[in-house]
Fold:
Amino acid sequence: MDRKARGQPSRLNADQRAALARIVEEGPTPVIHGVVRWRIVDLCQWFETFRLSVAWSFLR
Structure:
């Protein structure tokens, strides 16, 4: 019960997870990002800054 669940290891390290959480919490700036709220497509594109590819259709 007190063990970590098995599965794929995280593709993001702790710093990257913290950066993603900060981006989500702050929300987009409409003038800069062109949207008033994050969509999954926008966040998938954000992963590319870490050279990771996320297929948004996978997250449905």
